[in-house]
Design a protein that fits this description.
1 helix, 5 strands, about 45% strand, mainly beta
Length: about 80
């Protein structure tokens, strides 16, 4: 299980998150359109790393939860 606060960033095939500890993951299992329109927003994510993904960039998390942080600050 991976969880943490971070910021949504652009990805090639899938939206990505840069967590406050510097780790970056591609994201699947959520509303990709909403995530793509929210690039730069602070979020709290949790989910499992998937063994195979179409995202093509690093490790991928299958989201269990994605919450947009109201204050806009990640970390």
């Amino acid at each position: 299980m991976i969880s943490g606060d971070g910021v949504l960033i652009e990805g090639v095939e899938c939206p990505r998150v840069r967590l406050s500890d510097g780790r970056v993951f591609s994201l699947v299992g959520g509303d990709a359109r909403t995530m793509r329109s929210s690039i730069g927003r602070a979020v709290r994510v949790s989910g499992e790393i998937v063994p195979v993904s179409t995202c093509m960039q690093g490790l991928t998390i299958r989201l269990e939860t994605l919450d947009y942080l109201k204050d806009g600050n990640a970390g």
